[in-house]
Design brief:
GO terms for molecular function: acyltransferase activity. The protein is built from four helices and 14 strands. It has 185 residues and is α/β, with parallel strands linked by helices. Helix 2 runs antiparallel to helix 3 and helix 3 packs antiparallel against helix 4.
């Protein structure tokens, strides 16, 4: 399973200007990354991991490369994190900064154009749709709770919190906090 994943990453990097080092991570690191990524993967495929399936969903590609680059970032391997993050962006058209903190089981539906900015925090079981922006306003970054759904085109910015079990409507501009169980239009 890990060998298949490494082969796919090698294949992708051979076709890109980005050349992440497979040697930047140990076998144990790859296992830790897989253990985190499998929750994301199960949102798309509930039974059995097959690395060949990752390529069919850009959101899954972006999330995989985020998990890898985040692991490298947390281990102070910034250049390697940038290479993996950039490779993921080049294949998914989604930008997920490795300094963002994302819980388990993220799903990005039709995610083209989605940006998860630096130092953004996202809880568990969050669903993002395409062209969502989570980012900076006056130096602050948003926090999304658990079980939040964000619909297409939403922009969520600043030092704000969106509570658990909330829904952010399509094309919403959100720059203030909302409690749990909110419907934000």
């Amino acid at each position: 399973m890990i060998a298949d994943l490494l082969n796919e990453i090698r294949y992708l990097s051979d076709k890109s200007v980005f050349k992440p080092s497979l040697d930047a991570l140990t076998k144990e690191d790859w296992i830790d990354i897989y253990d985190s990524f499998k929750y994301d993967y199960e949102n798309y495929y509930p039974t059995g991991f097959d690395v060949q399936n990752v390529k069919y969903f850009p959101g899954l590609i972006a999330t995989l490369f985020y998990r890898i680059s985040r692991h490298l970032f947390l281990n102070n391997k910034i250049t390697d994190a940038q290479e993996y993050s950039s490779l993921g962006y080049s294949y998914s058209a989604m930008e997920i900064y490795y300094s963002s903190n994302i819980g388990k089981s993220l799903k990005i539906n039709h995610g083209i154009g989605t940006i998860i900015g630096a130092r953004t925090t996202i809880g568990d079981n969050v669903i993002l749709h395409h062209n969502v922006t989570l980012g900076d306003k006056n130096g602050g970054r948003p926090t999304l709770g658990n079980n939040v759904i964000v619909y297409p085109g939403a922009v969520i910015v600043g030092d704000i919190s969106i509570g658990d079990n909330s829904v952010v409507g399509a094309n919403s501009f959100v720059d203030k906090s909302y409690p749990s169980n909110s419907i934000i239009k």
